[in-house]
Amino acid sequence: MANKIGKWNLDEFITFLLIHASYADLEYSDEERVISKSLLSAEDYDEISAAYDDMGEYEITESIISYKGLHYPTVPQKQELLGRMTQIFEADGDFSKLEKKLYEFYNKLL
After folding, report:
1. What is the DSSP string of the chain?
2. Could you give the dihedral angle defined by the CA atoms of residues 32, 13, 37 and 90, in that order, rounded to the nearest 10 degrees?
3. What is the tens place of the pLDDT at every residue in 52-105?
4. In this structure, are residues 93 and 29 in contact, taking their beta carbons and an 8 Å threshold?
5. pTM score, two decimals?
6. 29 and 92 Cβ atoms separated by less than 8 Å
7. CA-wise closest residue to 13 among 43, 53, 45, 56
8. Residues 32 and 93: beta-carbon distance below 8 Å
């Protein structure tokens, strides 16, 4: 998958973003995992998940930012991504302070 970074289609990118959002509260719940896996085949999900696991926080943020012009160049598209993050944050029934901080960070950054 490392050779595909920078070439992810929209569903692969969203899956990566959702995995990252899921770890905001340091816990990847079963509910969050189901949502994150919903866009891809099991094999593709495993590849995206492995790529995520191999990155540090800086690389993850840089990867997300690098797709701005491709997958979310407009305000409505940005809001769609933030909405998907919110869906993940609310999946376990607790929109925690850590999740709110990550949401605000990406709301300002993107």
Report:
1. -GGGTT---HHHHHHHHHHHHHGGGT---HHHHHHHHTTS-HHHHHHHHHHHHT--HHHHHHHHHHTHHHH--SHHHHHHHHHHHHHHHHHTS---HHHHHHHHHHHHH-
2. 20
3. 999 999 999 999 999 988 888 999 999 999 999 999 888 888 888 988 999 999
4. no
5. 0.85
6. yes
7. 45
8. no
